[in-house]
């Protein structure tokens, strides 16, 4: 029996021994690629993956497996198929995907030939396309992390010249990723290539201005003059005509009003789709003009990234002479262009405290009293900017400096260290966290009634169970039902799933740590038979490990009790990321 070598990063290639394998159908190749990633799956999962009708797919799967065995030739014993499970022996399969976390620096460039399974499309198989899309995002992120690790190791190890090709490749694959440009500039400077670093910075500035309307937030190379962007527009977004009302949020609105009247900072906490952004915009629109700032996924990796952006926003259209020399010089730690002799990065706690104090003074000088900010996606902020913001919130009012802000964040994505910065400000009585809980059945019925007064209460109960009361999921599903003319039917077949909802849940699933993600997979497959003891036995983990994973999922709102929070979690998980231990899980369920 020969080993197999698979290449999935780019157009798929299969070698049995040292000979290429040839496939009669795309679905046979797609089936092999899927098993090479997932390991094994039930026949129902594979039928749903590659065919639109399960019954048709179950029958066609037998022929496809036969074609696949013929294509594999001497390696066909690696493919195992039983009455319910199809599996691939991954111990004898070598793939480029397996190398994503461990490839040496010398292997990295050759590893990536293009997007995951580039060019392998399957007609009439939407579930396949969704799986490939999710996997492509995951593999690109893994490759980006691999590149970044080897680049940093090269720079720190005095091998900056050797790391340059990797840094250039990272920018090529991430043309809008500011962190990729920042790391390339750092590598070029470490290699003594000042002119090249300036050119890279200019290219980054041009791309970000043209595509995103922003400037780079990382420090410019020596000798580069930076002009500040125009101030962000003052916005106030009225409720869209005909938009469904904010049902089920009367209590949160009242708490928000009370906290705002008391002069507190407000943090709206809730999962994706809970209505944080809509609630925040609608509330601030009634208070007057406000500025909107968004956290970016790249902020977390760049120290003081958000603080630097606030700094440039505050200086937009102003002369530097308006700032005292001491303030301008101290802030040159964040932006070296502010002083002809910029200060070096922070070295100790005393320097950090001085920077924080003068940054608070800067905010008081450049922003009008009680200016209102809407800060979206606080969970993306870098740690240093967050600590600086918490310091300003705690001690700014004592110096007559108080920037009013309403922030939104997802609790399952907010790093614990950032939450620890917020809690002392809450304890001082200067901030309040308002959690947006899921809607109740009555709230779901009220939303349906807005769309169609004939919508029955029984449909609201089904929809609540299906979505867990997530406002966005409810609304997306209800609109699909409305398009199908089914909004007045109490009973019916399976409720529809919108692509947007599937993408949101898919992204949350991909961001989970490995063990909690596997617990979700087991729960999705086991259904009513699921228990923590079942997950522990199927995954082969200890009681403590299973309990910690479950606690993580409960805090993230994915589990309620010992059940998934809603049916959508089970449905989307089964579609996008089938359980890699399906056979073990089924066997465990049957032997209970």
TrEMBL record:
InterPro entries given in the database record: AAA_16, AfsR-DnrI-RedD_regulator, BTAD, P-loop_NTPase, Sig_transdc_resp-reg_C-effctor, TPR-like_helical_dom_sf, WH-like_DNA-bd_sf
Lineage: superkingdom: Bacteria
Pfam families assigned to the protein according to its UniProt record, in alphabetical order: AAA_16 (PF13191), BTAD (PF03704)
Domain called Bacterial transcriptional activator: residue spans: 88-225
Protein's UniProt name: Bacterial transcriptional activator domain-containing protein
